[in-house]
Amino acid sequence: MNIVIDIRPLIHAKISGVTVYISNLSLQLLRTDKHNKYYFYYNSFSGLEFEKKAFKKFKMIGTRYPNKFFNLCLSLLRWPKLDKLVAKKIGKNIDAFVVLDPRPAPVSKNCSKITVFHDLSFERYPNNFSLKTRLWHKILRPKKEALSSDKIIAVSEFTKNELINYYKAPEEKFDVIYHGVSRKFQKIENAQRLEEIREKYSLKKKFILTISTIEPRKNLQTLIKAVEKLNEKHEENDYELIIAGLKNPKIFKTPVLTEKSFVKFLGYVPLSDKLLLYNAAECYCCASFYEGFGFPILEAMKCGCPVVTSRAGSLSEIAGEENALFIDPYDINDITNALEVAILRGREDERVEKAREYARGFSWRKCAMKTVKVISERSAI
């Protein structure tokens, strides 16, 4: 089969869960599937801005239309047919067009369309997004993209149920395929490396870690209050709260966060530093109101870091009931108490080791193989 993978979301994009998914799945598809031919489609009027080196083995097929005009044509006129654009360039018909994050993507009747949905936060919490992003979702018409797809891949059962509830998408269209987690996330016992990461970011010996974009649904203000309360109970320890992640005001509204001496914002941190931060932290906490998947809780588990997480969205589904301490994200006392228990149990607790083993089950190879199966089954009809 000739399969097109739509990597348009990587153009001009900052690092996010979606870009991590697209990059890792795309690479793993090439490694895993030797029977089909893959072409990677993008559109960029100004050229490529993502790292070309990582995609040097990809058969890249690009167009250079002005994005706003192009998306309006795709969404409202359902023209041009994207499979035909690629087919014209490669001289072969396209069997399947895979959209890895919803974008306007009209295709011809002879081409299967598979769309991946990560969450519906823009439907649940539209006011958390900038005006520009809300307008983009109007143009995108995600319900239209879902219902016009031959198959929908949801990244969790929670996201699948959101799509059924909001868009009335028929259940038989769905396959749930979990993300993978990089094998680079592992337990590090080299004390010198852990000390170096503390020195690099001027961290105290004891800190609580959270990794997320700075946006309202991440519930960071409540987490700050919970850690403040923890410090009031344990003045001799005075834990720091380390928040690693970027603001993105073009997409999200920026929440008002109280400035506290124990809170440190690191901004973007590379994967190599994330690995060490997970290993150096007393525990990891996700107090989010809503998640479609939840990469960081699994990354933390793989590093042997105790995890405290809310039950909101997909988080209890992805974490597994026995592998984390669960909290009510609206209850400051509940969060404080869970942090206290996680820190007291420590990294040597057998539940932390069981969580490590559990998180190893999320692999990009498994994700790629299941994705190929969905594409092949649909295209064979």
Produce a short descriptive summary.
The chain is of the alpha/beta class and 381 residues long.
By CATH, the architecture of the largest domain is named 3-Layer(aba) Sandwich
Residue share in helix: 40-55%
Describe the main β-sheet briefly.
7 strands, parallel
Number of contiguous helices:
15
CATH superfamily of the largest domain: Glycogen Phosphorylase B
Beta-strand portion reads 15-25%
Count up the domains. Answer: 2
Question: Uncertain runs with pLDDT below 50, 5 residues or more?
Answer: none
Distance between the termini: 13 Å
Write down the overall geometry: globular
> How many strands appear in the DSSP assignment?
13
Q: What is the averaged pLDDT score?
A: 94
Written as H for each helix and E for each strand, in order along the chain, the element string is: EHEEHHEEHHHEHEHEHEEHEHEHEHHH
Q: State the secondary-structure class.
A: alpha/beta
User: Would you state the CATH class of the largest domain?
Assistant: Alpha Beta
How are the strands of the largest sheet arranged?
Answer: 3-2-1-4-5-6-7
